[in-house]
Design a protein that fits this description.
Number of domains: 3
Strand content: 15-25%
Structural class: alpha+beta
Distance between the termini: 98 Å
Number of helices: 14
Largest sheet: 5 strands, antiparallel
Number of strands: 16
Length: 424
C-alpha cells in the first residue's frame, strides 16, 4: 500500500513539474528575445531593477483629429515610439545650449522679416529672403492655404513664436543627438509638451468640484499644442541656399549649400500625435565632421518671453545671444553697440513718426526688462551724451553707443572653454 501511494505521489509531482519547466523555458526564451531588441529594458525586467526604465508621461488631452497638420513624411523609424517613451518627464535646466551658425542667423532674420523683405524667385517661383550674411532662405508653401499663407509674415503663425520654437528644438537636438536612448538616424525624440514647458506655458487647471479650493491639471490646452504643431510644419518648409564656409586646420573650405533648415517627422498613434523626430538639415554635417560645433548658451528666461507682448525684448535678446557668442572669441564684452545697428540686426523697424514719443521709451523698457530677468548682466548703459531737450534728438539716440553685457555665468561658460571653434 505504501509503495503504491509513493508511486501515485511521484506521478502527480511529475505531472506538475513538466508544465512548470515548460513555462520557465518559455519565459527564458522571451527574455532572450527581449535582450536582442532592447537589452536595457529586458535585463532590467529580468533582474527586477525597475528604476532604470524609461518614464512615460501621463495621459494628456488628445488633439482634435481634424486639426492635425499633414507633414511630408521622412523615412519611417520603427523605434520612434520607444524613443518618445524615454524622453525625460521633467526638465528644470536653467540653460539650453544650441547651435549658433550663419544658417541659424539667416533663419532668425527670415522668420522675423516683414512680407516686404521677401521676394519671389523668378526661376522657382518660391518666396525668397536674402539674409545679411549672403545666405538665401526659401519657403515652400503647403497645399493647404488655411495652414500657412504663400508668403512668410502673412500667415497666422507669428515669426517671433516660431523662432522660439525653432531655437528650443535645436537646443534639445544638441543635447540628445549623441544619446542612443533618445536619437536615431540623426533625429531626436521631442514632445510638444516639452516645448510648451520651455516656453513657460502653464497647463490648464480645473477646480476639483464646485466650491472647492483644490485644483488639478488636465494638461495643456488643445489650441496650445495645435500652435506648436503648425509651427513645426512651418519650420519644415524652409530651405537654405548659398555658400558654406568651414575652417579646418587653418584652411577655409567652401561648400555649396542647398538643404532644408530642419527635418521634422511626425510620430502618431492613429489620429493622435505623440511627438516628433527632429533634427537640423544636412548643413550641420560639415560642422560636425570638422569638429566645429559653435554653441551658444541661452537662458530659460529668454524662451519664456511672450512673442507678442515682449517681442521687442525677444528680438533684442536673440540677437545679443549671437553677438555675445562672437565676442567670446576675443573676450571683449565691453565692445559697445550702436543703437541703429542693434535695432537693424535685431530685425526691429524704427518708428520714425513716433521716434521720441513712443519708440525710444519702448526700446529702453525692453532693455530694462532683459536686465530685470537676468538676461542682461548689467543695466544697459548709454555711452553717448544725449541732449533730450533738443527738438530732434531721436537721430542722436539712434547714433548713440550702448554697453550691453551678458550675465557673469555666461561669460564664465565661454571663457572657461580651452578653445573656441572658428566661426566665419
Amino acid at each position: 500500500m505504501k509503495l503504491q501511494a509513493f508511486k501515485q505521489m511521484d506521478l502527480k509531482q511529475y505531472r506538475y513539474e513538466q508544465p512548470l519547466k515548460l513555462l520557465a523555458l518559455i519565459y527564458l526564451l522571451l527574455v532572450l528575445v527581449g535582450i536582442c531588441f532592447d537589452p536595457q529594458v529586458a535585463l532590467a525586467d529580468f533582474g527586477g531593477n525597475r528604476h532604470s526604465l524609461p518614464v512615460t508621461q501621463p495621459h494628456l488631452t488628445e488633439v482634435a483629429d481634424d486639426n492635425i497638420p499633414a507633414f511630408y513624411p521622412l523615412p519611417a523609424l520603427s523605434d520612434a515610439h520607444t524613443l518618445l517613451a524615454r524622453v525625460p518627464h521633467v526638465n528644470h535646466a536653467r540653460y539650453l545650449s544650441l547651435p549658433n551658425f550663419r544658417e541659424d542667423m539667416a533663419m532668425r532674420e527670415a522668420l522675423l522679416a516683414t512680407p516686404a523683405q521677401w521676394q519671389q524667385a523668378s526661376a522657382s517661383g518660391l518666396s525668397c529672403y536674402h539674409a545679411s550674411n549672403a545666405l538665401h532662405v526659401y519657403y515652400q508653401a503647403g497645399e493647404d492655404p488655411s495652414q500657412v499663407c504663400s508668403m512668410p509674415g502673412q500667415s497666422k503663425i507669428t515669426g517671433d513664436s516660431t523662432l522660439l520654437t525653432a531655437r528650443i528644438l535645436l537646443g534639445l537636438w544638441n543635447n540628445r543627438h549623441t544619446d542612443p536612448q533618445l536619437s536615431a538616424h540623426g533625429l531626436v525624440a521631442i514632445k510638444v509638451e516639452e516645448i510648451l514647458a520651455w516656453r513657460g506655458i502653464q497647463k490648464h487647471q480645473r477646480i476639483a468640484y464646485p466650491g472647492a479650493s483644490k485644483r488639478f491639471s488636465d494638461g495643456y490646452q488643445s489650441k496650445q499644442k495645435q500652435q506648436i504643431h503648425a509651427e513645426l510644419l512651418h519650420l519644415s518648409r524652409y530651405t537654405l541656399r548659398g555658400q558654406q564656409y568651414i575652417r579646418q586646420q587653418g584652411q577655409v573650405h567652401v561648400n555649396a549649400l542647398n538643404t532644408p533648415y530642419m527635418h521634422v517627422q511626425q510620430v502618431a498613434q492613429g489620429h493622435k500625435i505623440t511627438g516628433y523626430l527632429v533634427g537640423p538639415g544636412n548643413w550641420i554635417a560639415s560642422y560636425q565632421s570638422g569638429n566645429s560645433m559653435f554653441l551658444s548658451s541661452v537662458e530659460r528666461q529668454i524662451f519664456q518671453l511672450h512673442p507678442r507682448n515682449d517681442y521687442l525684448a525677444l528680438r533684442l535678446a536673440f540677437y545679443l545671444v549671437e553677438h555675445w557668442r562672437q565676442l567670446a572669441r576675443s573676450g571683449d564684452y565691453q565692445h559697445p553697440l550702436q543703437m541703429a545697428q542693434l535695432l537693424s540686426a535685431s530685425m526691429i523697424s524704427v518708428d520714425k513718426a513716433n521716434l521720441t514719443s513712443r519708440f525710444v521709451p519702448r526700446i529702453e523698457a525692453a532693455l530694462h526688462k532683459l536686465y530685470a530677468q537676468n538676461i542682461l548682466g548689467q543695466p544697459a548703459i548709454c555711452l553717448s551724451q544725449l541732449d533730450t531737450n533738443k527738438a530732434h534728438w531721436g537721430n542722436e539716440w539712434l547714433a548713440s553707443y550702448w554697453r550691453l553685457l551678458p550675465p557673469d555665468d555666461i561669460m564664465h561658460a565661454y571663457t572657461s572653454r580651452k578653445a573656441l571653434p572658428a566661426y566665419l
